[in-house]
Protein backbone atom coordinates (compact mmCIF):
# COMPACT_ATOMS: atom_id res chain seq x y z
CA UNK A 1 0.00 0.00 0.00
CA UNK A 2 1.19 3.52 -0.85
CA UNK A 3 0.10 6.77 0.74
CA UNK A 4 -0.27 10.41 -0.36
CA UNK A 5 -0.10 12.99 2.42
CA UNK A 6 -0.54 16.77 2.58
CA UNK A 7 -2.96 16.73 -0.34
CA UNK A 8 -6.45 18.12 -0.91
CA UNK A 9 -8.38 14.93 -1.73
CA UNK A 10 -11.09 15.48 -4.34
CA UNK A 11 -14.23 13.46 -3.55
CA UNK A 12 -17.51 13.32 -5.53
CA UNK A 13 -19.20 15.75 -3.16
CA UNK A 14 -16.43 17.58 -1.32
CA UNK A 15 -12.71 18.18 -0.87
CA UNK A 16 -11.05 16.57 2.13
CA UNK A 17 -8.11 18.22 3.86
CA UNK A 18 -5.88 16.79 6.58
CA UNK A 19 -6.18 13.14 5.54
CA UNK A 20 -3.87 10.67 3.80
CA UNK A 21 -4.97 8.85 0.65
CA UNK A 22 -4.21 5.12 0.58
CA UNK A 23 -3.91 3.27 -2.72
CA UNK A 24 -2.39 0.20 -4.32
CA UNK A 25 -3.28 0.21 -7.98
CA UNK A 26 -6.73 1.42 -6.93
CA UNK A 27 -7.78 3.92 -4.27
CA UNK A 28 -8.72 2.10 -1.09
CA UNK A 29 -9.69 5.08 1.06
CA UNK A 30 -8.18 7.69 3.33
CA UNK A 31 -6.68 7.54 6.81
CA UNK A 32 -5.24 9.82 9.48
CA UNK A 33 -1.59 10.80 9.13
CA UNK A 34 -0.74 9.02 12.34
CA UNK A 35 -2.00 5.72 10.94
CA UNK A 36 0.56 5.45 8.13
CA UNK A 37 2.46 2.16 8.69
CA UNK A 38 6.12 2.51 9.51
CA UNK A 39 8.33 2.11 6.46
CA UNK A 40 5.49 2.61 3.95
CA UNK A 41 6.07 4.52 0.71
CA UNK A 42 4.71 8.03 1.18
CA UNK A 43 4.28 10.78 -1.41
CA UNK A 44 4.07 14.39 -0.22
CA UNK A 45 1.47 16.26 -2.31
CA UNK A 46 2.68 19.58 -0.86
CA UNK A 47 -0.81 21.06 -0.65
CA UNK A 48 -1.86 20.20 -4.23
CA UNK A 49 -5.12 18.56 -5.26
CA UNK A 50 -5.23 14.76 -5.41
CA UNK A 51 -7.74 13.32 -7.88
CA UNK A 52 -8.04 10.47 -10.39
CA UNK A 53 -6.23 10.67 -13.69
CA UNK A 54 -8.05 12.12 -16.67
CA UNK A 55 -9.50 9.88 -19.39
CA UNK A 56 -9.27 11.57 -22.80
CA UNK A 57 -11.62 9.92 -25.28
CA UNK A 58 -11.16 12.44 -28.11
CA UNK A 59 -7.64 13.60 -28.85
CA UNK A 60 -6.22 13.83 -32.36
CA UNK A 61 -2.66 14.78 -31.59
CA UNK A 62 -0.13 16.41 -29.34
CA UNK A 63 3.47 17.66 -29.46
CA UNK A 64 3.46 17.91 -33.25
CA UNK A 65 2.27 14.31 -33.63
CA UNK A 66 -1.03 13.16 -35.12
CA UNK A 67 -2.88 9.86 -34.69
CA UNK A 68 -3.82 9.88 -38.37
CA UNK A 69 -0.16 9.97 -39.40
CA UNK A 70 -0.04 6.29 -38.44
CA UNK A 71 3.35 6.60 -36.76
CA UNK A 72 3.74 4.39 -33.65
CA UNK A 73 6.54 6.55 -32.27
CA UNK A 74 4.37 9.63 -32.66
CA UNK A 75 1.53 8.01 -30.72
CA UNK A 76 4.01 6.93 -28.05
CA UNK A 77 5.19 10.54 -27.81
CA UNK A 78 1.58 11.68 -27.42
CA UNK A 79 0.98 9.15 -24.64
CA UNK A 80 3.97 10.26 -22.62
CA UNK A 81 3.27 13.95 -23.23
CA UNK A 82 -0.36 13.91 -22.10
CA UNK A 83 0.58 11.89 -19.02
CA UNK A 84 2.45 14.99 -17.85
CA UNK A 85 -0.89 16.84 -17.97
CA UNK A 86 -2.68 14.32 -15.76
CA UNK A 87 -4.11 12.05 -18.46
CA UNK A 88 -3.77 8.37 -17.49
CA UNK A 89 -5.67 6.76 -20.37
CA UNK A 90 -6.89 7.88 -23.78
CA UNK A 91 -8.37 7.04 -27.16
CA UNK A 92 -6.06 8.25 -29.95
CA UNK A 93 -8.51 9.77 -32.42
CA UNK A 94 -8.47 9.54 -36.21
CA UNK A 95 -10.17 11.96 -38.58
CA UNK A 96 -11.73 11.90 -42.02
CA UNK A 97 -8.76 10.89 -44.13
CA UNK A 98 -8.35 8.14 -46.72
CA UNK A 99 -9.22 4.59 -45.71
CA UNK A 100 -5.59 3.60 -46.21
CA UNK A 101 -4.44 6.25 -43.75
CA UNK A 102 -7.08 5.22 -41.22
CA UNK A 103 -6.02 1.56 -41.49
CA UNK A 104 -2.38 2.58 -40.98
CA UNK A 105 -3.37 4.57 -37.88
CA UNK A 106 -5.41 1.66 -36.49
CA UNK A 107 -2.46 -0.68 -37.01
CA UNK A 108 -0.09 1.75 -35.31
CA UNK A 109 -2.33 2.04 -32.25
CA UNK A 110 -2.95 -1.72 -32.27
CA UNK A 111 0.80 -2.38 -32.16
CA UNK A 112 1.16 -0.29 -28.98
CA UNK A 113 -1.97 -1.13 -27.00
CA UNK A 114 -0.59 -4.04 -24.99
CA UNK A 115 2.69 -2.28 -24.27
CA UNK A 116 0.81 0.81 -23.08
CA UNK A 117 -0.62 -1.14 -20.14
CA UNK A 118 2.75 -0.99 -18.40
CA UNK A 119 4.67 1.92 -19.92
CA UNK A 120 5.16 5.30 -18.26
CA UNK A 121 2.72 7.16 -20.50
CA UNK A 122 -1.06 7.26 -20.68
CA UNK A 123 -2.62 3.85 -21.39
CA UNK A 124 -4.20 3.33 -24.82
CA UNK A 125 -7.78 2.10 -24.44
CA UNK A 126 -8.43 1.84 -28.17
CA UNK A 127 -9.20 4.24 -31.02
CA UNK A 128 -11.91 6.84 -31.44
CA UNK A 129 -12.69 6.99 -35.17
CA UNK A 130 -14.15 10.43 -35.82
CA UNK A 131 -15.34 9.88 -39.36
CA UNK A 132 -15.03 9.24 -42.20
CA UNK A 133 -18.77 8.53 -41.91
CA UNK A 134 -19.93 12.14 -41.49
CA UNK A 135 -22.18 14.54 -43.40
CA UNK A 136 -20.35 16.73 -45.93
CA UNK A 137 -22.53 19.71 -44.99
CA UNK A 138 -21.27 19.48 -41.40
CA UNK A 139 -17.69 18.44 -42.15
CA UNK A 140 -16.08 21.43 -40.46
CA UNK A 141 -12.36 21.29 -41.21
CA UNK A 142 -12.35 17.62 -42.22
CA UNK A 143 -11.63 16.43 -45.75
CA UNK A 144 -14.79 16.19 -47.83
CA UNK A 145 -13.17 14.04 -50.50
CA UNK A 146 -12.54 11.31 -47.91
CA UNK A 147 -16.09 11.12 -46.53
CA UNK A 148 -17.78 7.70 -46.86
CA UNK A 149 -21.14 6.13 -46.11
CA UNK A 150 -21.14 4.25 -42.76
CA UNK A 151 -19.49 0.87 -43.29
CA UNK A 152 -20.34 -1.82 -40.73
CA UNK A 153 -17.87 -4.32 -42.17
CA UNK A 154 -14.95 -1.93 -41.77
CA UNK A 155 -15.89 -1.18 -38.18
CA UNK A 156 -16.49 -4.81 -37.24
CA UNK A 157 -13.25 -5.93 -38.91
CA UNK A 158 -11.45 -3.49 -36.59
CA UNK A 159 -13.61 -3.90 -33.50
CA UNK A 160 -10.57 -5.14 -31.58
CA UNK A 161 -9.10 -1.63 -31.62
CA UNK A 162 -11.98 0.79 -32.41
CA UNK A 163 -13.79 1.56 -29.15
CA UNK A 164 -15.73 4.65 -30.26
CA UNK A 165 -16.96 5.80 -33.67
CA UNK A 166 -18.45 9.17 -34.58
CA UNK A 167 -20.82 9.12 -37.55
CA UNK A 168 -23.79 10.97 -39.06
CA UNK A 169 -26.85 8.68 -38.76
CA UNK A 170 -28.64 10.19 -41.75
CA UNK A 171 -25.77 9.00 -43.96
CA UNK A 172 -26.66 5.40 -43.01
CA UNK A 173 -29.74 4.32 -44.97
CA UNK A 174 -32.18 2.62 -42.66
CA UNK A 175 -29.50 2.80 -39.95
CA UNK A 176 -28.42 -0.63 -41.15
CA UNK A 177 -24.75 -0.12 -40.31
CA UNK A 178 -25.61 1.33 -36.90
CA UNK A 179 -27.81 -1.63 -36.05
CA UNK A 180 -25.26 -4.19 -37.26
CA UNK A 181 -22.39 -2.63 -35.31
CA UNK A 182 -24.53 -2.27 -32.18
CA UNK A 183 -25.63 -5.91 -32.46
CA UNK A 184 -22.21 -7.41 -33.06
CA UNK A 185 -19.69 -5.34 -31.13
CA UNK A 186 -19.03 -3.20 -28.08
CA UNK A 187 -18.11 -0.17 -30.20
CA UNK A 188 -19.71 2.96 -28.76
CA UNK A 189 -21.61 4.70 -31.58
CA UNK A 190 -21.82 8.47 -31.43
CA UNK A 191 -23.66 11.05 -33.53
CA UNK A 192 -21.23 13.64 -34.78
CA UNK A 193 -21.03 16.04 -37.73
CA UNK A 194 -24.69 15.22 -38.57
CA UNK A 195 -27.31 17.18 -40.49
CA UNK A 196 -30.07 14.96 -39.10
CA UNK A 197 -33.34 16.30 -37.82
CA UNK A 198 -34.80 15.60 -34.40
CA UNK A 199 -36.85 12.56 -35.44
CA UNK A 200 -33.92 10.90 -37.19
CA UNK A 201 -31.64 11.50 -34.21
CA UNK A 202 -34.16 9.95 -31.82
CA UNK A 203 -34.57 6.99 -34.19
CA UNK A 204 -30.78 6.55 -34.35
CA UNK A 205 -30.62 6.31 -30.58
CA UNK A 206 -33.26 3.58 -30.67
CA UNK A 207 -31.13 1.76 -33.24
CA UNK A 208 -27.88 1.87 -31.26
CA UNK A 209 -26.42 5.38 -31.05
CA UNK A 210 -25.47 6.26 -27.47
CA UNK A 211 -23.46 9.51 -27.63
CA UNK A 212 -23.52 12.90 -29.36
CA UNK A 213 -20.04 14.12 -30.21
CA UNK A 214 -19.11 17.72 -29.37
CA UNK A 215 -22.63 18.81 -28.53
CA UNK A 216 -23.73 22.04 -30.29
CA UNK A 217 -20.78 21.92 -32.69
CA UNK A 218 -21.09 20.79 -36.32
CA UNK A 219 -24.67 19.50 -35.92
CA UNK A 220 -28.24 20.70 -36.36
CA UNK A 221 -28.91 23.24 -33.60
CA UNK A 222 -31.71 23.56 -31.07
CA UNK A 223 -34.58 25.72 -32.32
CA UNK A 224 -37.98 26.03 -30.68
CA UNK A 225 -39.84 24.47 -33.63
CA UNK A 226 -37.01 22.33 -34.99
CA UNK A 227 -35.07 20.80 -32.07
CA UNK A 228 -32.46 19.06 -34.23
CA UNK A 229 -29.75 16.76 -32.91
CA UNK A 230 -29.12 19.03 -29.93
CA UNK A 231 -32.80 18.87 -28.96
CA UNK A 232 -32.80 15.08 -29.30
CA UNK A 233 -29.71 14.81 -27.13
CA UNK A 234 -31.28 16.95 -24.43
CA UNK A 235 -34.63 15.20 -24.59
CA UNK A 236 -33.21 11.69 -24.38
CA UNK A 237 -30.57 12.63 -21.83
CA UNK A 238 -33.12 14.27 -19.54
CA UNK A 239 -35.59 11.41 -20.02
CA UNK A 240 -33.02 8.85 -18.96
CA UNK A 241 -31.82 10.95 -16.06
CA UNK A 242 -35.29 11.47 -14.65
CA UNK A 243 -37.22 8.33 -15.63
CA UNK A 244 -34.64 5.55 -15.80
CA UNK A 245 -32.52 6.76 -12.88
CA UNK A 246 -29.31 5.61 -14.55
CA UNK A 247 -26.51 4.91 -12.12
CA UNK A 248 -23.88 6.13 -14.56
CA UNK A 249 -23.37 9.84 -15.19
CA UNK A 250 -24.75 11.76 -18.12
CA UNK A 251 -21.74 13.18 -19.90
CA UNK A 252 -21.65 16.34 -21.98
CA UNK A 253 -18.83 17.56 -24.18
CA UNK A 254 -18.54 21.26 -24.86
CA UNK A 255 -16.12 23.18 -26.94
CA UNK A 256 -15.83 26.64 -25.35
CA UNK A 257 -19.27 28.19 -24.89
CA UNK A 258 -20.63 30.85 -22.62
CA UNK A 259 -20.46 30.34 -18.89
CA UNK A 260 -24.25 30.49 -18.66
CA UNK A 261 -24.48 27.37 -20.84
CA UNK A 262 -21.98 25.53 -18.67
CA UNK A 263 -23.91 26.44 -15.54
CA UNK A 264 -27.19 25.31 -17.08
CA UNK A 265 -25.77 21.99 -18.23
CA UNK A 266 -24.08 21.42 -14.90
CA UNK A 267 -27.33 21.98 -13.03
CA UNK A 268 -29.17 19.72 -15.45
CA UNK A 269 -26.57 16.98 -14.96
CA UNK A 270 -27.07 17.29 -11.20
CA UNK A 271 -30.86 17.13 -11.36
CA UNK A 272 -32.93 14.62 -9.42
CA UNK A 273 -30.32 14.35 -6.67
CA UNK A 274 -27.86 12.46 -8.85
CA UNK A 275 -25.05 14.62 -7.48
CA UNK A 276 -22.31 13.70 -9.94
CA UNK A 277 -19.66 16.02 -11.31
CA UNK A 278 -20.07 15.28 -15.00
CA UNK A 279 -19.46 17.89 -17.60
CA UNK A 280 -17.66 17.70 -20.89
CA UNK A 281 -17.73 15.03 -23.64
CA UNK A 282 -20.96 13.95 -25.35
CA UNK A 283 -24.46 13.53 -24.12
CA UNK A 284 -24.31 9.95 -22.96
CA UNK A 285 -27.36 7.77 -23.49
CA UNK A 286 -26.78 4.75 -21.32
CA UNK A 287 -23.62 2.68 -21.70
CA UNK A 288 -21.26 2.25 -18.77
CA UNK A 289 -18.63 4.86 -17.99
CA UNK A 290 -15.84 3.93 -15.59
CA UNK A 291 -16.14 5.79 -12.30
CA UNK A 292 -12.96 6.23 -10.31
CA UNK A 293 -13.15 8.73 -7.48
CA UNK A 294 -15.02 11.48 -9.29
CA UNK A 295 -17.08 10.53 -12.37
CA UNK A 296 -15.69 13.29 -14.53
CA UNK A 297 -14.48 12.89 -18.11
CA UNK A 298 -12.80 15.67 -20.03
CA UNK A 299 -11.67 15.58 -23.62
CA UNK A 300 -9.19 17.91 -25.21
CA UNK A 301 -10.05 17.60 -28.93
CA UNK A 302 -6.38 18.43 -29.03
CA UNK A 303 -5.10 18.55 -32.56
CA UNK A 304 -1.76 17.56 -33.88
CA UNK A 305 0.42 20.59 -33.65
CA UNK A 306 0.08 23.65 -31.67
CA UNK A 307 1.35 22.56 -28.28
CA UNK A 308 4.96 22.23 -29.27
CA UNK A 309 4.40 22.69 -32.99
CA UNK A 310 3.51 25.15 -35.70
CA UNK A 311 0.10 26.76 -36.03
CA UNK A 312 0.31 26.68 -39.81
CA UNK A 313 1.23 23.06 -40.40
CA UNK A 314 -0.92 21.07 -42.83
CA UNK A 315 -1.20 17.65 -41.19
CA UNK A 316 -2.47 14.52 -42.88
CA UNK A 317 -5.75 14.73 -41.03
CA UNK A 318 -6.78 18.34 -40.70
CA UNK A 319 -6.22 21.59 -42.55
CA UNK A 320 -5.32 24.19 -39.93
CA UNK A 321 -5.36 27.87 -40.73
CA UNK A 322 -4.42 29.41 -37.41
CA UNK A 323 -4.78 29.44 -33.67
CA UNK A 324 -6.24 32.10 -31.41
CA UNK A 325 -6.79 31.88 -27.64
CA UNK A 326 -6.38 28.11 -27.58
CA UNK A 327 -8.77 27.31 -30.45
CA UNK A 328 -7.58 26.16 -33.85
CA UNK A 329 -9.51 27.11 -36.96
CA UNK A 330 -9.67 25.65 -40.44
CA UNK A 331 -8.71 27.60 -43.51
CA UNK A 332 -12.31 28.75 -44.00
CA UNK A 333 -12.60 29.59 -40.30
CA UNK A 334 -14.63 26.70 -38.83
CA UNK A 335 -13.61 25.70 -35.34
CA UNK A 336 -11.22 22.79 -35.82
CA UNK A 337 -10.39 21.62 -32.34
CA UNK A 338 -8.35 22.81 -29.42
CA UNK A 339 -4.81 23.05 -28.20
CA UNK A 340 -5.50 23.41 -24.49
CA UNK A 341 -3.70 21.11 -22.08
CA UNK A 342 -5.94 18.85 -20.03
CA UNK A 343 -5.36 20.37 -16.62
CA UNK A 344 -6.36 23.76 -18.02
CA UNK A 345 -9.43 22.15 -19.55
CA UNK A 346 -10.71 21.50 -16.03
CA UNK A 347 -10.48 25.04 -14.78
CA UNK A 348 -13.19 26.77 -16.80
CA UNK A 349 -16.08 24.48 -15.82
CA UNK A 350 -14.88 24.51 -12.22
CA UNK A 351 -14.99 28.28 -12.16
CA UNK A 352 -18.64 28.26 -13.24
CA UNK A 353 -20.09 25.20 -11.53
CA UNK A 354 -19.54 25.35 -7.79
CA UNK A 355 -23.22 25.84 -6.94
CA UNK A 356 -23.35 28.87 -9.17
CA UNK A 357 -20.29 30.51 -7.64
CA UNK A 358 -17.02 31.10 -9.38
CA UNK A 359 -14.17 29.11 -7.88
CA UNK A 360 -10.71 30.56 -7.73
CA UNK A 361 -8.03 28.34 -9.23
CA UNK A 362 -4.33 28.85 -9.69
CA UNK A 363 -2.62 29.74 -12.94
CA UNK A 364 -4.31 31.08 -16.05
What does this protein structure show overall?
By secondary structure, the chain is an alpha/beta fold. The chain is 26% helix and 20% strand. It contains 8 helices and 20 strands. β15 (188-191), α5 (198-207) and β16 form a beta-alpha-beta unit. The model is unreliable at 238-260, 272-298, 304-327 and 352-364 (pLDDT under 50).
Radius of gyration: 20 Å
Please provide the count of β strands: 20
Content of β-strand = 15-25%
User: What count of helical segments does DSSP give?
Assistant: 8
- The secondary-structure class comes to alpha/beta
Query: What is the element string, with H for helices and E for strands?
Result: EEEEEEEEEEHEHEEHEHEHEHHEEEEH
Measured between the Cα atoms of the first and last residue, the distance is 35 Å
Biggest beta sheet summary: 8 strands, mixed
Low-confidence stretches: 238-260, 272-298, 304-327, 352-364
Helix content: 25-40%
Mass-distribution shape: globular
Whole-number mean pLDDT: 76
